[in-house]
Specification:
By secondary structure, the chain is an alpha+beta fold. The protein contains one helix and five strands; from the N terminus they run βββββα.
Length: 84
């Protein structure tokens, strides 16, 4: 699993695990699945899913998913990833 550095809203940097990254071509958006190694109980790990955009070469921003239709597309894409 790759480690990446993420700049938090308060300006601090945090190293997280990059679980997967994928693009949904129909809506022309890219997403990441990240983990901070936190437990979600019952042997499960908490994960974070965000849209990401490249601001300049090698510099990315994470954007929260607020639109329900986009969230549905992301869940469908993740299901396909798990099934394949």
């Amino acid at each position: 699993m790759n480690k990446i550095s993420v700049k938090n809203m308060d300006g601090t940097m945090e190293e997280v695990d990059l679980i997967n990254a994928f693009k949904i071509s129909e809506i022309n958006k890219r997403f990441v699945i990240l983990s901070k190694g936190e437990s979600a109980g019952e042997g499960m790990s908490k994960i974070y899913i965000s849209e990401f955009v490249e601001n300049e070469p090698g510099v990315y921003s994470l954007i929260g998913i607020k639109d329900d239709q986009i969230w549905q597309r992301v869940k469908e894409a993740m299901k396909q990833i798990v099934e394949s």
